[in-house]
Design brief:
heterodimer, A: 267 residues, mainly alpha, globular, B: 103 residues, 2 domains, two-stranded antiparallel sheet, 4 helices, 4% strand
């Protein structure tokens, strides 16, 4: 019970439940996108990065090719490399732990860890969130995949609308300020313009190139867009302690709220 | 079978990204441009995936019930609804609009 006294472990557990649960929607949408049960499970077990998994099935559902699906998922996974660098500097995992840590390096485990100030707590937060989400995400993917395959016509249940909502929900927490909202609008426009002219799936890759060019040539926050889908230190999850609040507020201040308030752009 | 190949390759590359982070020298992290591009690309790709799934049907653009799903999802997100609720509301909006005849 001593472990439960650790704030990082408590936050890790609640973020595991919140994130793991939405594996249900991934599982259900994946099988209705045309993937079979084991393809769906392979994505959750091996790829294990929510955004990239949704990207892969999103491209397949839109009639895109396997190579376009792979490309979108891979480009979206680049940020996990950045998280890996941060976590390596933070936790210094050694030997085989490095290889296990890599697999559970995602938005939420990184955010849980870096939201702590004490090195031991950072380590506990990372492993609790990483392994907790991995187990629950896969469990609930299986539940969703089994439930989804018995649904019949997915359109009748509005599952294409569910996919739209899922992507918007993944995007939403990253739209803090005017600049990310502007990037989102520009990339959405580039996509719409490209749709009639190139094969399905390719417009998404064009948007990725546009976004990369914006990142290369503009100078803004270097951690723009690197926020978790479910914020472990949001008031809905875990209890905040005063030290951490102060720490987070400092972080926020140094990012500069001069960017303005949360963008309202829907797409 | 073909899809399996790309799927497994995507899994391999996803792990490669993650692992690379643990093995590159820490001074690369000091270059803000890398993480900046990773961030803008994340935003751009998610925005693109959102809009593609809303208005694209293959290579044509269509205004159908999915637009209603997008609007409904935006409304509940503005009220800080949790992820799963947003997804359910999106599905419900699309299903409801189809039920009343808007495809």
């Amino acid at each position: 019970m001593k472990l439960l006294a650790s704030p990082a472990v408590r936050v890790g557990i609640s973020i595991s439940i919140a994130t793991g649960l939405y594996g249900v929607s991934f599982g259900a949408l994946s099988v209705t996108s045309g993937l079979d049960f084991w393809q769906t499970m392979a994505l959750s077990l091996l790829l294990f990065s929510g955004g990239s998994q949704f990207a892969f099935i999103g491209v397949v559902a839109g009639g895109g090719s396997g190579i376009a699906a792979m490309s979108a998922a891979t480009l979206l996974g680049m940020r996990n490399g950045i998280y890996g660098m941060q976590l390596n500097a933070l936790l210094h995992p050694t030997g085989w732990r490095k290889y296990v840590a890599a697999q559970v390096t995602i938005d939420e485990s990184t955010a849980t860890s870096s939201g702590q100030t004490d090195p031991d707590e950072q380590r506990r937060g990372f492993w609790t969130a990483g392994i907790g989400i991995y187990v629950l995400w896969n469990l609930f993917t299986a539940v969703g995949a089994l439930a989804g395959s018995g649904l019949g016509d997915p359109k009748q249940w509005g599952l294409d609308g569910a996919a739209v909502a899922a992507f918007l929900a993944l995007l939403w927490p990253r739209l803090k300020g005017r600049e990310p909202a502007a990037i989102a609008v520009v990339c959405a426009l580039a996509t719409v313009v490209a749709v009639p002219f190139v094969p399905a799936g390719v417009p998404i890759l064009i948007a990725a190139v546009v976004a990369a060019l914006i990142g290369w040539f503009s100078h803004g926050r270097s951690d723009e867009g690197l926020e978790p889908d479910v914020d472990p230190y949001d008031e809905h999850h875990g209890r905040r302690d005063k030290n951490r609040d102060a720490h987070l507020d400092n972080q926020r201040d140094s990012h500069g709220d001069s960017h303005g308030q949360t963008g309202q752009a829907g797409a | 079978m073909n899809l399996w190949i790309w799927l497994l390759l995507a899994c391999f590359l996803a792990y490669a990204w993650k692992l690379v982070g643990y093995f590159v020298p820490a001074k690369l992290l000091k270059d803000p441009r890398m993480s900046r591009i990773a961030g803008t690309m994340t935003i751009g790709l998610l925005a693109s995936l959102t809009i593609v799934n809303t208005v694209a049907s293959g290579q044509t653009l269509a205004a159908d019930a999915r637009l209603g799903a997008l609007a409904a999802a935006a409304v509940v997100l503005a009220f800080r609804a949790p992820f799963l609720l947003v997804v359910v509301v999106g599905a419900g909006a699309a299903a409801l609009l189809r039920l009343i005849g808007w495809n």
